[in-house]
Specification:
Length: about 120
């Protein structure tokens, strides 16, 4: 059983930075960050697998960085140059299998409860 607990959300002004953390227990192979804004579908933000390969949605490339700290059993999302349109509930997800599309939410079995990120203009 995989358990995920996010932390680090909050409010920030446009152009600011924020780091999200996800405490992980259990074996995982693929991990990702996803977000869902009110009235919109959940979308993939960034993903990483145990081999170290990363993938990013086009709308965060150059601004967000995903990483894993194996010593701390934690997944991170460093967010910079935040924009109001980045406002959403951010969730981490994990799966012990290789996934065909690591940015597709429906691929993942395990989810955290989410943490709200609000970017004001």
């Amino acid at each position: 059983q995989v358990q995920l607990v996010e932390s680090g959300g909050g409010s920030v002004q446009s152009g600011g930075s924020m780091r999200l953390s996800c405490a992980v227990s259990g074996y995982t192979y693929c991990m990702g960050w996803f977000r869902q804004a009110p009235g919109k579908e959940r979308e993939g933000v960034a993903a990483i697998n145990s081999g170290g390969s990363t993938s990013y949605a086009d709308f965060v490339k150059g601004r967000f960085t995903i990483s894993i700290d194996n010593a701390d059993n934690a997944l991170y999302l460093e967010m910079a140059k935040l924009k109001p349109e980045d406002t959403a509930m951010y969730s981490c997800a994990a799966d012990p299998r290789w996934l065909r599309n690591e940015l597709r939410p429906s691929e993942y079995r395990y989810w955290g409860q989410g943490t709200q990120v609000t970017v004001s203009s």
